[in-house]
Write a structure and sequence with these properties.
This protein has 225 residues and is of the alpha/beta class. It contains eleven helices and eight strands. The longest helix has 14 residues. The radius of gyration is 17 Å and the shape is globular. It binds cytidine-5'-monophosphate.
């Protein structure tokens, strides 16, 4: 008998498209490690801001990045980035200052390069912790990080519905502006890669989205519980 399957699942989509809730639900259903790469871009942004870097000043950004030591902490089924041994607190990575700056830093090629190998390495973290797979969500997972993932999904939803979801979470976040920046940048723009399963979640409940995605995955791996 061969070794048990280890599945790589990529979920991309715009801000508040339902990626995080879907990815979290999949991680529970199939016992996958959940990686929210948006939280990684946010943690790096918080650190760059803390060190006084501005997105216009690529030289300073580059020199701060060179000295950042990235690690990973696994908490339950979710992976968190450590910078110099510290996990940047949730309140800091979801702050209005980070919301406003993150897409500007994420458009800088050096920032994306710093995260490329790190994000790919999360598959090894998942294997080392005996997960049955990795579900990674972001903007360029199915296009750049894992273009050969076992499953690639792209979630989209009407902007008004997405703004409503974000407001319901009590967050100040200009998602339309972030989507505009993320879709128009030169390096790894937000786009549905060819071959990915595109799901419009505007009129679907979260359980409906999760069922749709799970049905595809369950053809390869039975749910864990
Ligand atoms: O997913 P979330 O909305 O928290 O992501 C925050 C920001 O991080 C995005 O607006 C985008 O600029 C950046 N990001 C990215 N590539 C990813 C994940 C996030 O550029 N794979």
């Amino acid at each position: 008998m061969g070794s048990p399957a280890f599945l790589l699942v990529a979920i991309d989509g715009g801000a508040a498209s339902g990626k995080s809730s879907t990815a979290r639900a999949l991680s529970e259903r199939f016992h996958f490690l959940h990686v929210d790469t948006g939280s990684y871009y946010r943690a790096i942004t918080a650190e760059l801001l803390r060190q006084g870097a501005k997105a216009e000043d690529h030289g300073v950004v580059q020199s701060v990045l060179t000295h950042l030591e990235l690690g990973t902490r696994v908490l339950g089924r979710s992976a968190q980035m450590e910078i110099g041994g510290r996990v940047v607190p949730e309140a800091e990575i979801r702050s209005p200052a980070v919301n406003a700056a993150v897409s500007h830093f994420a458009a800088i090629p050096d920032v994306r390069t710093k995260l490329l190998a790190y994000q790919r390495g999360q598959a090894e973290v998942a294997r080392a912790h005996a997960f049955r797979g990795l579900v990674m969500e972001g903007r360029d997972i199915g296009s750049v990080i894992f273009p050969t993932a076992d499953f690639r999904f792209f979630l989209h939803a009407d902007p008004v519905e997405r703004a409503r979801r974000r407001a319901q979470e009590g967050q100040t976040d200009s998602i339309a502006e972030r989507d505009r920046l993320d879709s128009s940048r030169k390096t790894s723009p937000l786009t549905c890669p060819p071959g990915a399963l595109d799901i419009d979640s505007t009129f679907l409940t979260l359980p409906e989205v999760v069922d749709r995605v799970s049905a595809a995955i369950a053809t390869r791996l039975p749910p864990a519980a």
